[in-house]
Records
---
Amino acid sequence: MTPWLLNRHSDTTNTAERVVMPHLNRDVVVVGAGATGLTAATELKEAGFDVIVLEARDRVGGRLHTDEIDGQMYEIGGQWVSPDQTALIDTLQTLGLDTYERYREGESVYIGPGGVAARFTGDISPASDSTQAELERLIETLDELVAQTDPAAPWEHPRAAEFDRISFRAWLEAQSDDAEAIENIALFIADAMLTKPAHSFSLLQALLMAASAGSFSHLVDADFILDKRVVGGLQQVPLRLAEGLGDDVRLGHPVRTIEWGEGGVTVSTDALTVAARHVIVAVPPNLYDRIDYVPPLPRLRQQLQQHQSLGLVIKVHASYETPFWREAGLSGTAFSPYQLVHEAYDNSNHGETRGTLVGFVSDQKADALFHLSAVDRRRAVLESLAAYYGPQALEPVVYYESDWAAEEWTQGAYAASFDLGGLTRYGALQLEPVGPIRFGSSDLAAEGYQHVDGAIRVGRRLAREIIEEASVPTEGASA
């Protein structure tokens, strides 16, 4: 048996430590009780490892959070399930969680540069014939490039260096002189996914985003990418995983220090220390530096972390006594690169008679919105929704803004991405362990990048790596 596994169930304390700082021994410490950390902990526990999960928040779930606001249930964080997210679908089935389809009957709404709302069906906006043709051409071109891109190693694309030096917007402008087509294509990656301006990330980063979903066409198809929801909310995934781990999940324990070396790690919070053979840091990359590493992380790892950042998006929820848009023949799907709310959907909960719309305000538009007072912010958002759905959208019975940038232990949404040149320079390095330290979250996923599906895949990979390492005989040990 691997030596550190002999420490199982040996929570040791002396008299002084009971007073000052309890000291625990575990095989693996997991930092972060999101989908990645809890998946890894569950897999490791099932393999016979002693695990403890340390979570800074007073709840589990990370960027998954279901809450009740003024009597209305809202999924404040991630919520959708698409058909290609097989790791998530498998987990839902294992946990016995049911899903239901997003409402999509009726026509969608698009607002072009002239500010006029147009109703349509299908995925392509009802622009002029020339703009529609240009949209179709650009989508086809991107699909061809995405098909050549391995989401697990986009830096290995034969033109990776070239694609990582040019911004997504600059590439689009080099491909087309149709301004409306450019704005619409940019919307599906910049506003809707990376939540950063299209000039701030590379073409290669955009290809990774699309490749992680299977194709660029999938990102355009709302009925695919936003297919289903979980009855009761997607946060039930981490909640149920945490139930299976019981007291091995400790809330309100932000990790302050990780001391590491060849012999393992000592992980310290304000209330306890844990000695272990491995640690998994399962938080977004922008939070890595909230931990003090002793000795410091290698220089390139420190550089890597300075070239990844989260985007910015405000998720807005508006509930009405009835889903009035359905009576008007609308599906609730609406989008426009020219509106404050760049996309919105019918987000009515399973079994409710109320109707709920969810909309998103991202990147520079979110910057501007945060300069307004709460009252003016609400008015501006509802006026944007009314541009799509009519004046009834101005009078919700419940209204709420999910502001993940204000969350101490998140500080942005949806996920981290690299700046120009960062993906080829550091992409492969982010997957490598540093001694006994492994890093992972949906931000580092290949398939399912920045989604719960990717978080689960990364959690499984990290657990598998530790299990495989433990099964390798140490030097000099008998076979």
---
Amino acid sequence: MTARIGEAFEIDRALSDIETLLAGPVPASGPTDSQGDLVTGEWTATSGEGFRILPLWESDSLVGVYAPEWNDADEAARGHLDDLVVELDRRWGAHRKVGMRVPIFRKIADEPMPPLFQALCDQDCLGDLSVWGPVAAGPDAANVWVAVSLNQCDGDAPMIVVALVSDRPIIELED
């Protein structure tokens, strides 16, 4: 669960959060650190060597929700991601997909992987990434890569849209 549960999806807020993510520092090195809300402890951000990850939106709990309501929730969440991708495509050009199949298998096998993919797996952010980059993070900033994804760790769990920024290319891991 994230600190975003219960918030309505608003495209302008999501875009603003991505702009804030772009404007912030990206750790060049160091351990991966996940932060939580001071009151609830719910996930608010993760940062690590070369990246930062931020939840943008979280659906309501889907415990006890079945079709057709579950299908409606899934369609709405996919619509939020699609709307965000369309807007980011307008800004930075066409995105490319980076699959999460290999990181998922590496997680299951307890095999090492780059810190960014390990952090995504640790937060159950297992959805394929829509990636742009390199993009300029600001007038005086270096180029970075940006990605968004829709995630759900199991059928009862909320759906979560996340954004991330990386100072390294985000590329598909090899088998």
---
Amino acid sequence: MDDRDAIVTTVSDYWEGWFDGDGDRMARAVHPGLAKTGVVIDAPGPRITGTMTAEDMIRWTRAGEGVAEKPADAGFELTINDIYHEIATATVRSGIYREYLHLAKTPDGWRIVSALYTHVREDPAPTGT
């Protein structure tokens, strides 16, 4: 499997594992040092959530947190923005989230090391994005 295909598999494990409640897939996808951060929009404006860890994501996946919020269309579009030797960056677009992922190639394969996400809104994104 080449790097591009391996990254697609990793991101699919992350995404589909979350919405299917499959903690094993999530565990395969995330690096133990994962730092996942959200940007949430509420009345005062944008705010940053606390950092989520690999342990959090795996535990919440197994508890069915993603299953509970699974949209009717849980599909996603993946763009691999860049691969440079052992690092990569990718964008996930879906009806529920926009995520920017950084990945690293480890002895166990490609793993998500960091993620920045926000919920998709109906208002259009600013020009230039």
---
Amino acid sequence: MVLLTACSSDNNSEENADKGEGNLGTKEVELATDTYLSNIGATHLVKLLLEEVGYDVTVTSTDVGIEFSGLADGSSDASVGLWLPTTHASYWEKYKDKLDKISMVTEKVELGLTVPSYMEDIDTIEDLANNKNNIGKKLDWTITGISPGAGEMKLTKNEVMPAYGLDENWELQSSSGPTMAAALTRAIDNKEPIVVTLWTPHWTFNKFDLKILKDPKNKYGDPDNVYSASRKGFKEDSPLAYKIIKAFRLTKKQNQNIMLNIQNGMSNEDAAKEFLKNNPDFKEKILSKAKGE
């Protein structure tokens, strides 16, 4: 494996920042993430990669809106969890002039209203709107959601529900990612109906047989891609960190494996370490690419 080492000097002057592709620059890096396992797992994987070459990395987990504003005002350095062009569109439009989009991390991530596959008669969002087989009454007209600031929640409330007439009878109940997953797990354990806001990658798709309801009006839009982004100036301040993040790629299946280990009790960092242990070529490929740029 190619080993990347820091320059011997401890200062972070502009002179050191020009010493070449292997230079660390500013060693302290703060990564921002929201509170969802799909982004938490990826973020801790990047943390390990950056620490491998000598960076001191802090991970800050917060609400999506604060994540974006923190990147924009320089409170944090980078994120690997921006869902575009749809899910985080409102945040991107607000802050994009103060951010640098780096690269695509994961392609074709989906989101939508999701049910257990044993709900055979419910296949589309229109089935909910039409109260097929009295599904509204069975669920007390409630869709189990996640945190109210999440892009999917805003999209569901402001676009999807009005388009299908769900806003007339149905309620989108705010909770959190873990609370939603716990409710889904309980329902499946009891083979009861439930509708949740869900997305891929998510560990529940590894554990349960689920289906995302068809969206014939395409109000959730085409699948997003997940991107990395940074504050302005990060590329110059920590050049090798920027290159590693630019080289970072993670498939949905890889992410879901990390997420499932976290869900099963591993710490965020231990789950990332377990992934690197089981995928020894992953680290070498990213670090080699970063050095070669």
